[in-house]
Amino acid sequence: MANTLSKLEPGLAELELQIAEVCQSVDASEGIEPLLTAIQPLLPDLGIQHAMTRVGWHRLGGVVDQDGQRVAHQLREWAEAESGGDVDELLFRFADRPYFATRLNGQTHYLVAPTGPLAQDFIQIEIEQLQEVLDRHLMMPDWFPDSLNDFVDPLDFPRLEHQPVGSPRLLFRRLTRIPELIDSPGASPRLRRFLAEWDQSSAAESEGFCQHWVLAIREYQDQDGDAHQSAKPVPALATRIPILPDAEVARGAGLANQIHGFDRELGYHFAWYFHMLTNRQVSHKLAEAVHADLMGAYAYLPARDLKILRQWYQDPYGV
Q1: Host domain of residue 264
Q2: What pLDDT does 257 receive?
Q3: pTM here?
Q4: Is the pLDDT of residue 175 over 90?
Q5: How far apart are CA 32 and CA 37, in angstroms?
């Protein structure tokens, strides 16, 4: 499997196009399994798995009339074209039209496939599931937005019940070869340390990093206009993270039971430590207390994990 990732190189653009076509052909309402089934033959040497689905985000939609007929697919582009940059002109022209603004309620499905033995050895495929819904009346009596931006995306405006406009659809977002992301000049040293510590710790005895974590990737441009990506680890079981104390931390056997219980809940060793690095709900005081215990009379961590904890105590960080 160590060389599997390099096999993607010659046909990566074609592979992305094929995944995009699969997304157009699969019925989003049938769930994630038909999507996995359709994508798997495109990567016969890898095992594609659904790691997690991120919900609760949305973006601007378009414009429809009172019969649900399409006026515009992109609200912002339509508003800019019809107004010529003058929001008062837009209000004058369309004040009596019974139009509605829509929004796209989104989910992001994270699919992963291990490609080697290290934490960074996997590919990650992000596929968006979008459902267009009614969001608000496009205009209201006695409403006078200050600018075109305020018209397009007002902060304080009566919202409608989110009645669907059409069927949900799938949209290919990106395919990321994680080793290339980690090895890129702009990669975060903290993320590199996070992944290296996974490989050095008892967590590496589990079925694999990408079964427990995905990377939330953000694209940005530097001052020179060059494109870069940043990434942050996100736990696949984000809704099932146990609560660990951030004030009165137990010591000794009580503390050992707390962290081992956390690990059992998440399904792998040393889970509490990696969640402490990424989640404010898992306090750094916990690591300090464990470190104090293990420097004293207690011994409830493997030597490899204790070594990492001591390194963190001397040089603490978070991701």
Answers
A1: 184-319
A2: 84
A3: 0.88
A4: yes
A5: 9
Among 142, 176, 210, the domain boundary falls at 176
Q: Which residue has the tokens 């094929």?
A: 18
Please tell me whether residue 83 adopts helix, strand or coil conformation: helix
Considering its fold, how many domains does the chain have in total? 2
Q: What is the DSSP string of 242-265?
A: PP--SSS---THHHHHHHHHHHHH
Q: Are 126 and 206 members of one domain?
A: no
Please write the tens of the pLDDT for every residue from 58-75: 999 999 999 999 999 999
Residues 148 and 190 in one domain: no
Whether residue 236 contacts residue 211, with contact meaning beta carbons closer than 8 Å, is answered with: yes
Whether the pLDDT of residue 3 is over 50: the answer is: no
Asked whether residue 5 carries a pLDDT value surpassing 60, the answer given is no
CB 244 within 8 Å of CB 261? no
Domain boundary, last residue among 152, 176, 200: 176
Q: How far apart are CA 235 and CA 158, in angstroms?
A: 35
